[in-house]
Amino acid sequence: MLSGLVWLVVHFWRTPISRHVAPVAAEFALIAALYSLWRLARMLPIASTHGAIQRAHDIASFQDALHLPSELTLQRFVMEHERLADLTTWYYASVHVPALLAFLVWLFFRHRDKYPHWRNGLALVTACCLWIRFIRVAPPRFLPDLGYVDLSHHFGPSVYSADPTTGVSDQFAAMPSIHVAWAAVVSFGIVACSTSRWRWIFLLHVVLTMLVVSATGNHWWLDGIVAIGLLAGSLAADTAVRSYVRRRSADGAVPGPELGPEGLLVRLPEAGQR
Fold it and tell me: What pLDDT shows up at residue 135?
């Protein structure tokens, strides 16, 4: 709310500096509002956990059929190295939100023309993740019968309470992974927008996030794969809508006089075109 009030003050209180501050204030207010909605939606109580454990078993079986690597093997490897386990749980708990905010700030100030496309893609993929959470899916750590454990309760910080029915986050919303979705926005956005030869290094963020969410027992591989697919669809949808709007605007445009290279009038629009 405070960010919205700041934007209103800057927008309506015309000063020489307001035209520079207003765009920043508007975007900050929008991102703050979207983040608040996301937090509220994550805290909405969904009492039913019906089918969540069975769907988790189904995902494990499906991944085996696809011959995907086992999350359990990765988790056991991490647990054998205490320092690595601490870093893994810390990365899961601490990196995804600051990295996303830093990316948005960088993109807004360095590549303003590309910012709306990636901001809209972020909003759409987050909305899709929140909608799909109504299909209850348990994370691997809820399947001790398969050998999984909750890494965060043995090493490093934990963002979830011991009771899955309490806390600020829905623990039966493993599919898809919002961590991977946001990491993909950051990594792919930097690669797509930056011109630096070092931009490819930032692909490590989405790769590390995929490994971390699996090693901690918080997500299946498919949770991350689906999240990346949703981001691709969200970006494609934004591109399609923008192309459609541009075509409609061009079709409805009124042609003006044609000017030559020196700015001289070459041809007036025909009477039927006016």
Answer: 87
